[in-house]
Amino acid sequence: FEQSNYPYHVSARTHDQTPFPIPLHEVWEIMSENLFYMTNAYGFEIHSFVLMNNHYHLLVSTPKCNLSQGMQWFGQEFTKTINRISNRKNQLWGGRYY
Question: For the whole model, what pTM was predicted?
């Protein structure tokens, strides 16, 4: 159920809860760039973002009711970038965002 009246609390955790395979400050830079893109491309309104060593929390509003579309792009793009930098080929996320 997608709506535009209230913000979503979105979170995702790495596969097997392992830490990200690159330093956290690099993860932060990648996530920041992707979040900036999402505000422009998908019209997301980012209220808050917290990055931990194996997961994140995002508080976001979606005036266009397009949470699924934006989060799918975010997860795929982030995974491609991390895998390229860390020379990995396996999945990064433990599952879909929730």
Answer: 0.89
Give the Cα-Cα-Cα angle 13, 65, 70 (nearest 5 degrees): 40
Backbone phi and psi for residue 11, each to the nearest 5 degrees, phi listed first = -145, 155
Give the total residue count for the chain: 98
- Please state the separation of Cα 82 from the chain's center in Å: 12
> Token match 């830490």: residue?
19
Query: pLDDT tens string for the chain (98 positions)?
Result: 788 999 999 999 999 999 999 999 999 999 999 999 999 999 999 999 999 999 999 999 999 999 999 999 999 999 999 999 999 888 898 888 88
Q: Which residue has the tokens 């209220």?
A: 47
Distance, in Å, from the CA atom of 22 to the CA atom of 75, rounded to the nearest integer, reads 16
Nearest to 1 by CA among 42, 62, 44: 62
Residue 8, beta-bridge partner list:
60
Which structure tokens are listed for 91?
């999945």
